[in-house]
């Protein structure tokens, strides 16, 4: 067996091992009962250890051969006469580094969570989602085609949303999860359009074919400037969503509703960097699209400024860390926009490790603060804020107020994105109900959902609520359009 | 065993079972008979897959004198899977259905509807096709017309859209048979015979309009979609699902319209594509604002059916393959989703998300199944819909990138819809702890739902055999429009 084949199998093993753990534990839980904490944690950690070891070997090989750009075809998922969905893994410095980072941090967070979530009602759920996340993220970073990348991207998104809603008995995490999901879903349109464009422009979904096949970061894509710019901008939309960039990043502080280990894993270490990884992977494309690179840098700069200002007005540690993460990721976007790809990768690796540690220690933040104060032995802490001393007080007050309100970004999104769609839907629904009722000759009342005496299921009144005469629940959603995206911000509900 | 005998048995077993169920001494006994009959139907539906050679499984019986109708049954690479799907749906509904809800008339209606649907899928003679088309609607009509069901909107909507919607197909079939007889066809209703003699190009647009109208009504395409949300919200659940999910409209399009009316199809497909796209977006937006889970499923189905119409009308190998696969994929996932909703409603007496919430505490497995099947219905990686949507997008892209982008937006909205439904039904605090003592899912419900999840995942991970099985039909259909 040749070295590329061995590497391909190891990379595939790294992706598949957590998936097998997820499938086995998930089927057992759904059909019979939840296994014990010991069984769940051992199975998942064994799979993650296998992933980490495989990733380590792959990374070692990439370090030995730094110029390697190895696209390994492990078969095809499906094919028709004119189309094949190839399963291609890409092994180079970038992907192997990310594989190592992902698998190691997933393992560390998994180990940490055994004690942290002990006797928590959602222990099994957390570990199932951890293994599914590891599968998705490893597939994402090792993808050799944009189609495989998309599959991993979606897995990461859905596990992220489910972990935000981990404490489902409270309303705030559920609403926060909905917000995260809506943002992901809308921004993913950029990724999908990018996939479609890539097929249209390059007639291939293989990164190797589109990006030139040179060792990362390459020298340019095999596309014209116009095509490269359009493609890069589409992928930028997706990256902005996943990496919480301005103006769609308001979901990140909300996502801190999840348990601390998931916050550390997703929004400190790994998931939030998926957009950065996407842009790093597309470095050759960005080199061929200077306009798109400039947009990347501008988005990053705006995010860094916004997140810094808002972060300084936060009163809870997880929100402050979320905004700090946004601002650092914004700086990574700037680095990518300016063409410092290696620097951005180093920044990503270091930031992921540091932020993961900070978030895992977030529950001890108060104690840390007390330790720092006691270390100063009652002496006042140094004033770090420079702006307050240099800028006019009125301006500082205005910016502070805006920062507290998070620059009204959410309200604007709700007013100009969510509300029009919901209003359209509600109007259509009303028109349609009236129309159907009129056509059926029963007047408006039944069509509007006031059809009292409607037997649900056309059944005799009986058990279980079915067949019980009840008014139709119909009616367009009586909730305001705010309900698609909105969430009453309540810092007190943020679990830290 | 000859194809004719096997396919006749496949059609008759559920019908005979329905008769036995009606005569059963109790609902419980009726349920046992129905499940046994549905299981036998499923086994019979597997047989053509094993016995099919050369892409077809065909048998010809006697001809009806004077009329010229012939007992001609057959399956091809596309339709061979469909009876299996209908039989599977039927078995799932009967096993997972609430016993108290599925009384004998309901059980018999489910079985009779499935029998007529399978007859449509097997018919190679237009007379039988038309009779079976009308017959699929009779059990539902009788059920809705029962004295204890006092719902004029449901009854009249059903009659207006579904029973009224049979007129175009009856007229179309009569017209085709008359023209075929004029051209010297020995059996003027036989699809193969009509194909042999051909139909005059001048009359094809009219015939296409009639049959296309029948397709659009059964596919619940805008503006003929009004029946689907009403039926799913207020109608008998099993029959409503069978009528909503059985892909008889697509079958009519592929088996009758495209082969017999190639010129008419070439001219009319852009209209079908436009209607499909409109239905996709319309269904997605309307589903987003629903609070009733059953009505929401109705609009989701309408949106998915629109995607399929768009795929078929795009008429290239990828889009047609994707559309046919989407038919299977959405049937599996939306049936499962509907079963979960059914289970929730049976326990809480509500399917309105404004009255629900926090159910994950009392029904954790229902929440897991809902989420998995919701993901499976919106093209999540690993599910069969991921494969079908991938093919559809690439196929539609060849026609026009803007169509593909609009389709993607609609798909994204559908994703938001199902997640919001999940959030409002299962997450958050339970309203006044109303559902704290709700019964957990039964083992038979879990087995059915896990089977559906496993099926969509297995087919999603390894869809190649299913695609290869349909390759011949896809090639033929595309060739007939673009020779």
Automatic annotation (TrEMBL), chain A:
Membrane topology value:
Multi-pass membrane protein
What domain of life? Bacteria
The protein's location, in the record's own words, is: Endomembrane system; Membrane
Extract the ranges annotated as region (Disordered): 445-496
Q: Name one GO cellular component term.
A: membrane
Enumerate the Gene Ontology biological process terms.
ATP synthesis coupled electron transport; electron transport coupled proton transport
According to the UniProt entry, which residue ranges have a biased composition of type Basic and acidic residues?
Answer: 487-496
Transmembrane region(s) = 6-31, 43-65, 94-114, 126-144, 150-168, 180-202, 222-243, 264-283, 289-309, 329-350
NADH-Ubiquinone oxidoreductase (complex I) chain 5 N-terminal domain location is 77-127
Q: Where is the NADH:quinone oxidoreductase/Mrp antiporter transmembrane domain?
A: 148-373
Per UniProt, what is one GO molecular function of this protein? NADH dehydrogenase (ubiquinone) activity
- Could you list this entry's UniProt keywords, alphabetically sorted: Membrane, Transmembrane, Transmembrane helix, Ubiquinone
Q: Matching PANTHER family, A to Z?
A: NADH-UBIQUINONE OXIDOREDUCTASE CHAIN 5 (PTHR42829:SF2)
Write down what this protein is called.
NADH-ubiquinone oxidoreductase chain L
TrEMBL record, chain B:
- One GO biological process term: ATP synthesis coupled electron transport
Any idea where the NADH:quinone oxidoreductase/Mrp antiporter transmembrane domain is? 123-413
Membrane association type: Multi-pass membrane protein
Single GO molecular-function term?
NADH dehydrogenase activity
Q: Which residues cross the membrane?
A: 33-52, 73-96, 160-181, 201-217, 237-261, 267-289, 296-317, 323-345, 366-387, 399-422, 443-462
Question: What are the entry keywords?
Answer: Membrane, Transmembrane, Transmembrane helix, Ubiquinone
Q: Which domain of life is it from?
A: Bacteria
Q: What is this protein called?
A: NADH-ubiquinone oxidoreductase chain M
């Amino acid at each position: 067996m040749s070295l590329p084949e061995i590497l391909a199998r190891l990379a595939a093993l790294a992706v598949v091992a957590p998936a097998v753990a997820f499938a086995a534990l998930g089927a057992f839980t759904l059909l019979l009962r939840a296994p014990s904490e010991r069984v769940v944690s051992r199975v998942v950690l064994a799979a993650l250890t296998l992933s980490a070891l495989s990733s380590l070997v792959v990374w070692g090989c990439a370090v030995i051969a730094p110029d390697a750009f190895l696209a390994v075809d492990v078969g095809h998922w499906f094919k028709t006469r004119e189309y094949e969905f190839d399963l291609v893994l890409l092994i180079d410095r970038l992907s192997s580094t990310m594989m190592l980072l992902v698998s190691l941090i997933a393992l560390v967070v998994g180990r940490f969570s055994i004690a942290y979530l002990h006797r928590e009602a959602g222990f099994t759920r957390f570990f199932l989602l951890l293994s599914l996340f590891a599968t998705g993220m490893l597939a994402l970073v090792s993808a050799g085609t944009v189609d495989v990348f998309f599959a991993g991207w979606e897995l990461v998104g859905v596990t992220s949303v489910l972990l935000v809603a981990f404490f489902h008995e409270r309303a705030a995490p559920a609403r926060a999860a909905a917000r995260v999901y809506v943002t992901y879903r809308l921004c993913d349109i950029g990724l999908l359009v990018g996939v479609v464009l890539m097929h249209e422009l390059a007639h291939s979904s293989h990164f190797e074919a589109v990006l030139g096949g040179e060792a990362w970061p390459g020298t340019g894509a095999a596309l014209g400037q116009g095509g490269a710019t359009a493609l890069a901008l589409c992928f930028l939309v997706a990256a902005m969503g996943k990496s919480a960039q301005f103006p769609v990043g308001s979901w990140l502080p909300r996502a801190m509703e999840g348990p601390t280990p998931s916050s550390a894993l997703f929004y400190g270490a790994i998931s939030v960097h998926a957009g950065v990884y996407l842009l790093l992977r597309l470095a050759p494309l960005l080199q061929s699209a200077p306009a798109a690179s400039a947009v990347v840098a501008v988005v990053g700069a705006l995010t860094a400024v916004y997140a810094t200002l808002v972060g300084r007005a936060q009163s809870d540690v997880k929100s402050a860390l979320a905004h700090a993460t946004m601002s650092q990721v914004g700086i990574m976007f700037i680095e990518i926009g300016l063409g410092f790809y290696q620097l951005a990768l180093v920044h990503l690796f270091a930031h992921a490790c540091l932020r993961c540690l900070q978030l895992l220690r977030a529950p001890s933040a108060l104690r840390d603060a007390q330790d720092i104060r006691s270390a100063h032995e009652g002496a006042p802490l140094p004033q770090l804020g420079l702006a307050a001393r240099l800028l006019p007080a009125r301006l500082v007050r205005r910016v502070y107020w805006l920062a507290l309100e998070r620059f009204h970004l959410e309200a604007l999104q709700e007013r100009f994105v969510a509300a029009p769609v919901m209003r359209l839907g509600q109007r259509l629904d009303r028109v349609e109900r009236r129309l159907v009722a009129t056509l059926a000759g029963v007047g408006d009342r039944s069509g509007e959902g006031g059809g009292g005496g409607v037997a649900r299921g056309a059944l005799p009144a009986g058990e279980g609520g079915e067949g019980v005469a009840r008014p139709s629940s119909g009616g367009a959603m009586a909730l305001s359009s705010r309900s698609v995206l909105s969430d009453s911000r309540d810092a007190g509900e943020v679990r830290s | 065993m000859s194809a004719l005998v096997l396919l006749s048995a496949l059609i008759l077993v559920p019908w005979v079972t329905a008769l036995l169920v009606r005569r059963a001494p109790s609902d419980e006994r009726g349920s046992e008979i129905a499940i046994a009959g549905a299981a036998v139907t499923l086994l019979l539906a597997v047989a053509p897959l094993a016995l099919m050679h050369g892409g077809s499984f065909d048998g010809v019986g006697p001809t009806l004198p004077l009329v010229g109708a012939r007992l001609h049954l057959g399956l091809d690479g596309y339709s061979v899977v469909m009876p299996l799907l209908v039989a599977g749906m039927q078995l799932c509904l009967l096993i997972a259905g609430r016993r108290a809800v599925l009384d004998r008339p309901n059980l018999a209606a489910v079985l009779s509807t499935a029998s007529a649907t399978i007859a449509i899928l097997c018919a190679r003679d237009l007379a039988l096709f038309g009779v079976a088309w009308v017959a699929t609607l009779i059990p539902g009509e009788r059920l809705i017309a029962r004295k204890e069901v006092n719902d004029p909107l449901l009854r009249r909507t059903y009659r207006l859209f579904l029973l009224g919607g049979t007129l175009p197909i009856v007229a179309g079939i009569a017209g085709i048979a008359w023209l075929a007889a004029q051209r010297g066809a020995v059996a003027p209703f036989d699809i193969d015979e009509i194909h042999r003699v051909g139909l005059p190009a001048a009359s094809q647009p009219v015939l296409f309009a009639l049959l296309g109208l029948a397709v659009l009504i059964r596919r619940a395409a805008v503006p003929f979609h009004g029946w689907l949300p009403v039926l799913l919200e207020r109608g008998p659940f099993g029959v409503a699902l069978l009528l909503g999910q059985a892909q008889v409209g697509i079958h009519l399009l592929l088996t009758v319209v495209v082969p017999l009316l190639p010129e008419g199809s070439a001219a009319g497909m852009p209209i079908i594509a436009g209607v499909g796209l409109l239905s996709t977006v319309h269904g997605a937006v309307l589903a987003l604002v629903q609070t009733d889970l059953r009505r929401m499923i109705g609009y989701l189905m309408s949106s998915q059916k629109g995607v399929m119409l768009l795929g078929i009308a795009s008429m290239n190998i990828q889009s047609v393959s994707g559309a046919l696969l989407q038919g299977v994929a959405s049937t599996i996932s939306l049936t499962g989703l509907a079963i979960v909703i059914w289970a929730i409603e049976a326990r809480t007496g509500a399917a309105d998300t404004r009255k629900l919430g926090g159910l994950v505490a009392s029904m954790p497995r229902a929440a897991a199944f809902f989420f998995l099947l919701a993901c499976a219905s919106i093209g999540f990686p690993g599910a069969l819909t991921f494969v079908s949507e991938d093919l559809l997008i690439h196929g539609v892209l060849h026609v026009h990138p803007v169509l593909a982008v609009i389709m993607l937006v609609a798909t994204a909205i559908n994703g938001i819809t199902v997640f919001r439904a999940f959030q409002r039904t299962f997450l958050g605090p339970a309203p006044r702890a109303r559902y704290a003592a709700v019964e957990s899912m039964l083992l038979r419900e879990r087995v059915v739902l896990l089977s559906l999840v496993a099926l969509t995942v297995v087919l999603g991970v390894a869809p190649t055999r299913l695609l290869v099985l349909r390759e011949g039909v896809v090639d033929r259909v595309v060739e007939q429009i673009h020779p």
